[in-house]
Design a protein that fits this description.
By secondary structure, this protein is mainly α. It has 19 helices and no strands. Helix 2 runs antiparallel to helix 3, helix 5 crosses helix 7 and helix 9 runs antiparallel to helix 10. The longest helix is centred in the middle third of the chain and has 24 residues. The protein is globular.
Length: 329
């Protein structure tokens, strides 16, 4: 019982990684070094999500290197060791070596047989088994292949295809890469034409291309599906539909859409931010102030919003800028 308590305290201690060598020996002596390694290593998962070209947190990568080195001396064949070595390489920008490391490890793992995207069923233990049996490796290797310009290889070789499609589509959308997204959507539509996510992504392609009438039709299709079948309501399409109306100069339709979202039992999107964006587009400083007064933390996001650029420059919003100054760039 005393060891169980001590172990829990050590694993929860945020400073423990700096004293890893002090802890590793005692854990190893009772056969729990792998548990220690797994717990500490997974604290570095955020390295996977670093923005492209962002400064690498060098100290965190060095900590991961030290952790990998001490564990490799005892457990050189641990599959998760290969994953975290690849993570350190990826964080440094060496996608080629990271991909090679992952390819060796993943050859020993069991691939999913279904192309369907995973749906969490509430079983936490099964979720963790899936994550560290394949999914974490798939996700990181897909990121490596994208950096190497080999996203088609990722889509073709890293099942489930629908999960890899989602990852790639979100990445291309965030980068405003309409060309790559269009290619991906076409490829996925040929292989999985019944995928329920396709209408949204077809709309996103048109949205990024600024073909707003075409985007409108696709987003309306997705939203109608959500109205008819509330269990598949899609807040992404809700937001995109509002912004599409705005870019078409249809502010009243945008307002009506926000009101529909707010009245829905499944309202989940950033409705207050959307109301503020609509107010900016409508030269309505009182509407902007009303939204920001309700949630002042929205101000930074609103100033950065692509549909609210007038907030920084238009004289009509002087009172807004006085009460909620723009962030210093």
């Amino acid at each position: 019982p005393i060891w169980g308590f001590l172990k829990g305290e050590l694993l929860r201690d945020a400073r423990a990684l700096r004293r890893l060598l002090d802890y590793y020996g005692p854990f190893d002596q009772i056969g729990e070094a792998e548990d220690l390694y797994r717990t500490f290593a997974r604290r570095h998962s955020t390295l996977e999500w670093a923005a492209p070209n962002a400064p690498i947190p060098a100290a965190e990568v060095q900590e991961l290197d030290a952790l990998n080195a001490v564990h490799a001396a005892k457990f050189p064949n641990n599959p998760e060791l290969g994953y975290w070595r690849a993570m350190a390489l990826f964080a440094r920008g060496d996608a080629t070596k990271a991909d090679a490391e992952l390819a060796v490890v993943m050859a020993k793992l069991k691939k999913p047989t279904s192309p369907d995207r995973y749906r969490f069923d509430g079983d936490v233990a099964r979720e963790e088994e899936r994550e560290w049996g394949w999914e974490a490796y798939r996700r990181l290797r897909a990121s490596c292949l994208v950096k190497l310009g080999k996203w088609k290889q990722a889509y073709e070789q890293l099942p489930p295809a629908c999960d890899t499609f989602d990852q790639l589509a979100n990445r291309f959308s965030a980068a405003n890469d309409d060309f790559a997204l269009a290619e991906l959507v076409d490829l996925h539509a040929k292989k999985h034409p019944a995928d329920e996510e396709l209408p949204f992504w077809r709309g996103e392609v048109q949205f990024l291309k600024r073909n707003y009438e075409a985007a409108l039709k696709e987003f309306q299709l997705v939203v109608k599906r959500g109205i008819d079948l509330p269990t598949v309501s899609d807040s992404r399409a809700d937001e995109r539909l509002v912004r599409t109306f705005l870019r078409l100069g249809r502010s009243q339709d945008a307002i009506a859409e926000v009101e529909r979202i707010e009245q829905s039992n499944l309202a989940r999107g950033p409705q207050l931010l959307l109301r503020a964006v609509i107010a900016v587009a409508s030269d309505d400083p009182d509407g902007v102030l009303d939204a920001l007064d309700k949630n002042p933390r929205l101000a930074a996001g609103l100033y950065a919003d692509p549909d609210a650029t007038a907030l920084r420059t238009r004289p009509v919003f002087a009172a807004v800028r006085q009460k909620y100054p723009p962030p210093v760039r």
